[in-house]
Amino acid sequence: MKFIKYGKYTGEPADAIDLEELVKRMGNFFLQSGFESQFYVSQMDPERSMEALREAILRALQEGDLLPDGAMSDELREMLNDSNAMNNEAVKDLLDKLTERLANEGFINPQQPPQVTPPPQTSARGQLGQPQDRVQARFEITDKTIDFLGFKTLQDLLGSLGRSSFGRHDTRDMATGVESGGVSRPYEFGDTLNLDISETLFNAVRREGAKVPIEMTYSDLMVHQCEYQSSCATVVMLDCSHSMILYGEDRFTPAKRVAMALSHLIRTQYPGDTLSLVLFHDSAEEVPLAELARVQVGPYYTNTREGLRMAQRILLRQKKDMRQIVMITDGKPSALTLEDGRIYKNAFGLDPFVVGQTLEEVNKCKRAGIMINTFMLASDYSLVNFVQKITQMCRGKAYFTTPYTLGQYLLMDYMSRKTKQIH
After folding, report:
1. Which helix (H) or strand (E) is 184 found in, with range?
2. Is 43 within the bounds of a domain?
3. Three-state SS at 274
4. What are the tens digits of pLDDT across the range 276-330?
């Protein structure tokens, strides 16, 4: 008699992996900024081959904890930790399935290489095609991945800050509105009719005495006061000169993460605000926020004045109560765009001509009512003095920080609107 033995089906190992946790661990790979190749000048098209993606997935798996113990055999675990794992067929199959899951759930968008048929060679025995060079398949990260990484970064930053209250930006001014936040005051023409019923009735009773009906006059009306909440237009000026990835430290990727977190915060908690992104290097350019995760460092110099000019043009189009520039940089201004379009460059020391023209642009921001908050990722004495001059001229704030604490300071500044300077 034949017996059939059934075992418990545990599923494929690739199905047991939490894709969101995998994407979170691969965040640095998705947001690569050119740090791995410091002499590579980006053309805003980073190398994203499917083979590099599989290697990044393998590194994430080797870190552990992604695959539950019950979903992975001891044999597979040994294969993953083998130095030659990429050549193992079982590991290749696992990586291919995870890549397919990432594509199916909208985290990546695979792009097949173009199919080019070369002109045939005619011979006595028929036609021979030309040998083709192997073209790697590529992929692009999707908006879903960018939004997810921005949310996770924001979540991590807020967790490190402790309790933070969300809402629109509070100011010191009082206004009439829906949420009461202060003592009542007499109604004035144009106020939101958010009546304080008890105070209004008390005024009428005090004037006429306790009788029915109660006769009220215009002067009896009292309205609640609430904190006046303003809207804000923000331009993030992100330094992408080569110094952001030199000297053994990647400063650009953390800055990109913070900008993505700020974008997610504004979109979800401050819907009346606007956020724009300006990259400044040899010149300056406005980049859509959707492209932030894909940009890399380059070219070389730091044209701060051109970045300020572009930021002003963007902010002056915004009809908001507050307008501000958040400048994230690690270096001194070392370039200027001349009137004829040529770029004047001097990377040696603080060039008086460059500094003078840059400070003049800061003065224009002050006259336009635009605040500049500077987040400096370096601590050179000359640069500290330069940033302090900017701060004094436009009554902004200066934060001398590191790539690891940048996000905490920036979000604290954006949400609290305090006037404290952190040095």
Report:
1. strand 182-186
2. yes
3. strand
4. 999 999 999 999 988 888 888 877 899 999 999 999 999 999 888 888 898 888 8
Residue 40 identity (one-letter amino acid): Y
Q: Could you give the dihedral angle defined by the CA atoms of residues 87, 88, 94 and 95, in that order, rounded to the nearest 10 degrees?
A: -10
Number of domains in the chain: 3
CA–CA distance, 365 with 232 (Å, rounded to integer): 16
Domain that holds residue 99: 13-111
CB 255 within 8 A of CB 217: no
Per the CB < 8 A criterion, the answer to whether 15 and 105 are in contact is: no
SS3 234: strand
Answer yes or no: do 99 and 151 share one domain. no
Q: What is the pLDDT of residues 360-378, one digit of tens each?
A: 999 999 999 998 988 888 7
Residue 233's contacts (CB-CB under 8 Å, 6 or more residues apart) are 273, 274, 276, 315, 318, 320, 322, 323, 324
Unique residue bearing structure tokens 């001194």: 332
Q: What tokens does 151 get?
A: 């949310």
Tokens (6 digits) for 213:
């009906």
